[in-house]
Model the fold of this input.
Amino acid sequence: MIRNLVIVESPAKAKTIEKFLGKDFVVKSSFGHIRDLAKKNLGIDIPKGYKPEYVINDDKKKVVDDLRKSVAESETVWLASDEDREGEAIAWHLSEVLKLDKKKIKRIVFHEITKDAIQNAIKNPRAIDYDLVNAQQARRILDRLVGFELSPILWKKVKPSLSAGRVQSVAVRLLVEREREVFAFKSSSFFKVNALFKSDTDIKAELSEKLGTLKETLGFIENCKTATFTISDISKKPSKKTPAPPFTTSTLQQEASRKLNFSVSQTMTIAQKLYEAGHITYMRTDSVNLSDTAIDGAKKTICEEFGEKYHNPRRFKTKSKGAQEAHEAIRPTYFDKQKITGSSAEQRLYELIWKRTIASQMSDAKLEKTVVTINISTSPYKFIASGEVILFDGFLRVYLESTDDDTDESGKGLLPPMKAGQILTPKEI
Done:
């Protein structure tokens, strides 16, 4: 007899969870969805109010038989699929197909695969959320109604193998509208002039005004050949930079693409592996919120690694409407684990997530911005050179590698020592 049967989505997750629960629990996997809409008549009975007609997938019949045997031997069944719409639908499909007694089943969810999170979920079971289930069913039905009806038309009228769907069709419409705006746009030309001056080192500067015609631009450059260039003003002012919030699904995809050259699908596949191995929290989220446990964990690591003065706790809020603030951002489950074992791609993505989360709880970076104004003896225009120096300290590398720009610890656009009245020699204009 099995006292507690826990059913999760993936076998990798099952192995990790089983280690935390002990001998009274058996953890099995459904290997994702166990049934889907039938192919006949789109799997939807339209006259009966769009009633879905489900069938067990051929490749899941053996899995379902195995689960039925385990359920028959179990006292309690814990449905532990993911907390999103798909996960809730999987829990509902399991309860329907396995004909689970409502008194016998308990629905649990967790954002991270850690011992504390799993045990806390066991202590706080809930019922299946039918609002989420119905939302998933509506999406799946729309996929069939739109995709299965439109795609054959595309094959006949445009090109074989094309597909259309609930999301694709709307996205294509948006792209077409934007492309029409681009074609209708009335462009106008202007010219920017950049100069390279010699001092102790090269100084890059840009003309303060944009010139309207090529003739005016070439005339200005010709006048510069006999001009004298003098530094008329040097202004320095302090500023600061606040770290970016922790990752959501979309921001993780963007940063992984920019910094690691990962595709969207590659990022999500790797993140799924990290989640199932218990290294990060759930990777499908639109929230930038961190739990109290996470904030405390980040504080401990920052204070130990960099010092208490570099700790600045923050609670971020999502700007987008409908975001699930009760959920968490994507973060490490253990902040003291700066590196993990795994493939190179898994290590790199984990490091990106760790640094971004730690940086979000650190002090602002202190900057000093310098703006140099360069007069031109033959023109009323001026050249402007600017540079930004970060006041270096021990925490800098972690912070900088976690921000949204490519600044490094040497400073951005670092300018050489200069003084007002200094004459500059043009190297190139």
User: Anything to note?
Assistant: The radius of gyration is 30 Å. The first helix runs from residue 11 to 21. DSSP finds twelve helices and 14 strands in the chain.
